[in-house]
Design brief:
Elements (H helix, E strand, L loop, with lengths): L1 H11 L8 H15 L5 E11 L5 E10 L2 H13 L3 H8 L3 E3 L12 H6 L4 E8 L10 E8 L7 H56 L3 H14 L4 H11 L16
Antiparallel strand pairs: 1-2, 1-5, 3-4, 4-5
Length: 257
């Protein structure tokens, strides 16, 4: 059935290796705009929970994808005015339906902007992203919008949007896990690279001074402290000065370093 197929397509957008959050959100919004009956544009927003100085908790936008630029403008207005279907959906953590924004009285500061942006009717559903200890209270809101009033068959589009929100949440969680893994790998590579160059610099100092590894590292650290630099940066400078066609040893602490 086309509903299940569309939901699977939305869910699959987070499975490709190397997919970024921004790219996944953009693809999800376009897929919904093309696949949901009556939909003119779609908006998918990832929110994260933050705690204020007074202990109050609110959701802030982490990233979003909009199939049409006007929806981006509408979201920015909702966010700054704290009025509109998307911010209400995440604030109340419930489905928000709009038959015709001109008949609405819930968001008086949003009405004129909605009309300008062609956002006459909409269905917006929030869904929590799986946690696994992330602890940031992330939520995705999945919204389908139309430039026409009463554009959506509620018996079809409301449950469909809820289904798409669930699949999007699962897919975006997977994207987040991939990004975490990539950051961890990059961190490990940087750490290994830093350790290698520090070991090389220590070897240069040990050969020049006839000292042991601990004394060589102490020398590197002292130069770094005097020059307000990182130890790894001092090590890179020393290795660079002692490699290449014209190698010459400069001991840490000479030439004012």
């Amino acid at each position: 059935m086309w509903i299940e197929r569309l939901a699977r397509d939305i869910g699959a957008l987070g499975q490709s290796e190397g997919t970024t959050l921004e790219r996944a959100l953009d693809q999800m919004s376009r897929a919904a705009a093309l696949g949901v009956p009556g939909c003119s544009a779609a908006l998918v927003v990832v929110w994260r929970e933050v705690e204020g100085p007074d202990g109050s908790v609110r959701h802030v936008v982490a990233d979003y994808g909009a199939s049409h630029a006007d929806l981006s403008t509408a979201l920015e207005h909702q966010y700054t005015s704290d009025q509109g279907p998307t911010v209400e959906a995440v604030r109340e953590m419930r489905q928000v339906r709009v038959g015709d924004v001109l008949r609405e009285h819930r968001w008086p500061r949003y009405t004129s902007m909605a009309v300008q942006c062609g956002d006459r009717s909409s269905v917006t559903v929030p869904s929590e992203l799986p946690g696994e200890g992330r602890g940031d209270g992330r939520v995705v809101t999945f919204g389908v919008h139309s430039s026409r009033a009463d554009a959506f068959d509620e018996d079809v589009v409301v449950p469909l949007t809820a289904l798409l929100a669930e699949h999007a949440a699962a897919a975006l969680h997977n994207v987040g896990r991939q990004a975490d893994a990539a950051r961890e790998t990059a961190h490990m590579r940087r750490a290994m690279s830093a350790r290698t160059v520090i070991d090389q610099a220590k070897g240069i100092i040990m050969h020049a001074r006839g000292c042991d590894a601990d004394a060589a590292f102490t020398a590197l650290r002292e130069v770094a402290q005097r020059n307000r630099k990182k130890v790894v940066d001092v090590a890179r400078d020393l290795v660079a000065e002692n490699t290449g066609p014209q190698q010459r040893m400069r001991r840490p602490g000479t030439d004012g370093r």
